[in-house]
């Protein structure tokens, strides 16, 4: 028997076989029976007198939602003392004001003192009101709640424990939410403390321990402990080096320094950890999280149950490798070392990786074959995605060529001086290129993306976190191994990390203190999800690739069908494939128009008619549902416009600012199109498919950006660099440049150093 807070804990609970807790957060969505423990800091207001009604209503809403999903919810709550204190203070003030008004006059009212209120009296006055409040709130969701008050003595008596267990099971069977609290009105008086000003508060450790005890007794799947801190930190929250612990394992107590308790209650984090570890030992998973933060309290409970990275998760299963936070820190340290290497050394790493792609192609293709077989057997990938997943000897050769291009062009990327200014005599300013920091690249079904992005990160001196799709797990594993082998020749193996843990993309996007830029490579839905999830981290990319080709009246017959065929049919799943074909009205019912339609039919391209195009036809193809559609397959929309100006307006209204093309022999019309279309890539008489880092001579790309800040279009090495300012002086101070100072600003532009011709 172990005793915490005067409650005896039996190591093997009554009628409970030793269960097994969930090993990973992602499994929490399977939790059937859940206990939510609400600490005093969560339930009470900031003035510590009365309840935080809005916060409590939000918690009740979340519990009701989970209850109505078929889960069995229980609440262990504090708050009776605070609620009772509010009521008793009101009564005391009222009675005092009447007495003093009768005997001393109004002038004495302001000098009235509130006596110290005994905690048990506060609890007695507050219990009924607290329960009435819970009942009123749960009634709004057609849920019944029942109150159960317990004391330490109830756990000493075997029969009482059996009765409590039976009562709780019966309530859960009837779909009633039990609300459990210690019966603070009859417990022994506590030691005086000042947690609630003027009130001796019953120790919160009672409710922490009570929640853990009930969770194990009731064979609960999950215990959620809500407090006023984000979770468990490795040192007291608020200290400079304090870091939130994502997952806490038994035996990690030595790595944690506990600070003071929360603003109310006696338990503090140390008591919560002890209770959590005891519950974990009994087979109940535990999460400690913040229930007071206004931005997350409205969904903290449901987020935890959905497996999102909220608070600290207690797990008995320690992963073999580092956490993603540790990987990000390793990538940052490795990236800084990488950036400090000589350009020739970074190029040597990339050349080595290019050689490994061809030397180890049999092993790479064997791993890729496993991915393809698993994907086909599970039937979870569409044909275009299977094509993206597939690697071949020719693809690996092309990758190696691209990597060598990157190595050759990276000699003068990091540390390049792009501006020099003489501020004053012996005071020179330089603006130089530097890496962005740590990149997170998330990609789907594209194992060839891994060496491309790795090479660009190496060339630009950035640390890199890679999160690939599970459908390419075998391919990604060997390609990452080869990347680290190449990095090892200069001791920077850790600069590129592959995330293999069960991290959800949304959780990765919250690591704003560890990641500097997110680059998604995948479907438009993936990009939109990441842009939505990444609250504090910039996202480089495009959500859609709605590319247009406009056929002008002066278009060449020979060029039109070739360019359209290549733009649509060469790789229809690509983001730079044609999706909408704009035809000048004068070309309708001409031989050129017939040739375009015949070619699309031969290539088995399904045609959707835009509204104007459909109005010209007696029997039209299926009318398009939206002119903002990215088909990603052998489908396209055809629409009619009256002029190049209308074509530009259509592109601005329905396009995605990715890649747009004009086919014409009229140079004036072409220049109008090139200058007025506001897209990342605008072409004249060339296929949309040229919008690609390799084809632009960048060696490779991390993606195509339609953003208007920093980088736009295919993003190569230059797009992964930012700048910093270097100022070299000699005892200069700003006061010397004042009106009566001895120095004057020069602001002279200085010549740039010669770039490496190689």
UniProtKB/TrEMBL annotation:
Q: Which GO terms describe its biological process?
A: L-proline biosynthetic process
Q: Which CDD domains match?
A: AAK_P5CS_ProBA (cd04256), ALDH_F18-19_ProA-GPR (cd07079)
Q: Where is the Aldehyde dehydrogenase domain?
A: 323-588
- Where the record annotates domain Aspartate/glutamate/uridylate kinase, the positions are 32-290
Q: What is its EC number?
A: 1.2.1.41, 2.7.2.11
Q: Which Gene3D superfamilies match?
A: Acetylglutamate kinase-like (3.40.1160.10), Aldehyde Dehydrogenase, Chain A, domain 1 (3.40.605.10), Aldehyde Dehydrogenase, Chain A, domain 2 (3.40.309.10)
GO CC terms for this protein? Answer: mitochondrial matrix
Asked if Endoplasmic reticulum is a keyword of the record, the answer is no
Superkingdom assignment: Eukaryota
Q: In which pathway does it act?
A: Amino-acid biosynthesis; L-proline biosynthesis; L-glutamate 5-semialdehyde from L-glutamate: step 1/2; Amino-acid biosynthesis; L-proline biosynthesis; L-glutamate 5-semialdehyde from L-glutamate: step 2/2
What molecular functions are annotated in GO for this chain? ATP binding; glutamate 5-kinase activity; glutamate-5-semialdehyde dehydrogenase activity
Q: Which UniProt keywords apply?
A: Amino-acid biosynthesis, ATP-binding, Kinase, Mitochondrion, Multifunctional enzyme, NADP, Nucleotide-binding, Oxidoreductase, Proline biosynthesis, Transferase
Q: Which reactions are catalysed by this chain? A: L-glutamate 5-semialdehyde + phosphate + NADP(+) = L-glutamyl 5-phosphate + NADPH + H(+); L-glutamate + ATP = L-glutamyl 5-phosphate + ADP
Q: Where in the cell is it found?
A: Mitochondrion matrix
Provide the leader sequence positions: none
Q: Which family does it belong to?
A: In the N-terminal section; belongs to the glutamate 5-kinase family. In the C-terminal section; belongs to the gamma-glutamyl phosphate reductase family.
On subunit structure and binding partners, the annotation says:
Can form homodimers/multimers.
HAMAP family, alphabetized: ProA, ProB
Q: What does this protein do?
A: Bifunctional enzyme that converts glutamate to glutamate 5-semialdehyde, an intermediate in the biosynthesis of proline, ornithine and arginine.
* Protein name in UniProt: Delta-1-pyrroline-5-carboxylate synthase
């Amino acid at each position: 028997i172990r005793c915490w807070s005067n409650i005896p804990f039996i190591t093997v609970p009554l009628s409970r076989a030793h269960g097994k807790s969930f090993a990973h957060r992602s499994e929490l969505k399977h939790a059937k029976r859940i206990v939510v423990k609400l600490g005093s800091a969560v339930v009470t207001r900031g003035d510590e007198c009365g309840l935080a009604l809005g916060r409590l209503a939000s918690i009740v809403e979340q519990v009701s939602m989970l209850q109505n999903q078929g889960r069995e919810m229980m609440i262990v709550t504090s708050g009776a003392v605070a609620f009772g204190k509010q009521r008793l203070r009101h009564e005391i003030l009222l009675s005092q004001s009447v007495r003093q008004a009768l005997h001393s006059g109004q002038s004495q009212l302001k000098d009235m003192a509130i006596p110290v209120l005994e905690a048990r009296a506060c609890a007695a006055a507050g219990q009924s009101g607290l329960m009435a409040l819970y009942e009123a709130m749960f009634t709004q969701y057609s849920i019944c709640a029942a109150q159960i008050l317990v004391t330490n003595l109830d756990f000493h008596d075997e029969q009482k424990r059996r009765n409590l267990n039976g009562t709780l099971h019966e309530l859960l069977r009837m779909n009633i939410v039990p609300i459990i609290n210690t019966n603070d009105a009859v417990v022994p008086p506590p030691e005086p403390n000042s947690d609630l000003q003027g009130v001796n508060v019953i120790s919160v450790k009672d409710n922490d321990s009570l929640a853990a005890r009930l969770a194990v007794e009731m064979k609960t799947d999950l215990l959620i402990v809500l407090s006023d801190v984000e979770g468990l930190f490795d040192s007291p929250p608020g200290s400079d080096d304090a870091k939130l612990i994502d997952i806490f394992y038994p035996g990690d107590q030595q790595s944690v320094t506990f600070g003071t308790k929360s603003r109310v209650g006696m338990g503090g984090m140390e008591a919560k950890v002890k209770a959590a570890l005891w519950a974990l030992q009994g087979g109940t998973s535990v999460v400690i999280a913040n229930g007071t933060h206004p931005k997350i309290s409205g969904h903290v409970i449901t987020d935890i149950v959905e497996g999102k990275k909220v608070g600290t998760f207690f797990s008995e299963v320690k992963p073999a490798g580092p956490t993603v936070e540790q990987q990000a820190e390793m990538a940052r340290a490795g990236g800084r070392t990488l950036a400090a290497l000589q350009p020739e050394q970074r190029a040597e790493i990339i050349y080595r990786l290019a050689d490994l792609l061809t030397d180890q192609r049999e092993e790479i293709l064997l791993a890729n074959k496993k991915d393809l077989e698993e994907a086909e057997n599970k039937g979870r990938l569409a044909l275009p995605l299977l094509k993206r997943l597939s690697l071949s000897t020719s693809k690996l050769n092309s990758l190696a060529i691209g990597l060598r291009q990157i190595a050759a062009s990276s000699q003068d990327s990091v540390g390049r001086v792009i501006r020099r200014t003489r501020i004053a005599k012996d005071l020179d300013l330089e603006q130089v290129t530097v890496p962005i920091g740590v990149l997170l690249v998330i990609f789907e079904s594209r194992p060839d993306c891994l060496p491309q992005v790795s090479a660009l990160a190496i060339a630009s001196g950035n640390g890199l976190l890679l999160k690939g799709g599970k459908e390419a797990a075998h391919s990604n594993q060997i390609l990452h191994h080869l990347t680290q082998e190449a990095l090892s020749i200069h001791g920077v193996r850790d600069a590129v990390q592959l995330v293999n843990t069960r991290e959800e993309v949304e959780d990765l996007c919250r690591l704003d203190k560890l990641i500097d830029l997110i680059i998604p490579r995948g479907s438009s839905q993936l990009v939109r999800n990441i842009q939505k999830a990444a609250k504090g981290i910039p996202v480089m990319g495009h959500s859609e690739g709605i590319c247009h080709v406009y056929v002008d009246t002066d278009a060449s017959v020979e060029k039109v069908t070739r360019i359209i065929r290549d733009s649509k049919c060469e790789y229809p799943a690509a983001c730079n494939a044609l999706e909408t074909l704009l035809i000048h009205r004068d070309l309708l019912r001409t031989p050129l128009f017939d040739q375009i339609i015949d070619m699309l039919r031969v290539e088995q391209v399904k045609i959707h008619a835009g509204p104007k195009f459909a109005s010209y036809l007696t029997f039209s193809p299926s009318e398009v549902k939206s002119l903002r559609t990215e088909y990603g397959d052998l489908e396209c929309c055809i629409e009619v416009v009256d002029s190049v100006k209308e074509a530009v307006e259509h592109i601005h209204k329905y396009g995605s600012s990715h890649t747009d093309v004009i086919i014409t022999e009229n140079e004036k019309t072409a220049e109008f199109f090139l200058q007025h279309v506001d897209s990342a890539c605008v072409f004249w008489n060339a296929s949309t498919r040229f919008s690609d880092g390799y084809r632009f001579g960048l060696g490779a790309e991390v993606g195509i950006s339609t953003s208007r800040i920093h980088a736009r279009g295919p993003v190569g090495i230059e797009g992964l660099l930012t700048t910093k300012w270097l100022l070299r002086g000699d005892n200069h101070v700003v006061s010397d440049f004042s009106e009566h100072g001895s120095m004057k600003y020069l602001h002279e532009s200085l010549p740039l150093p010669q770039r490496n011709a190689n």
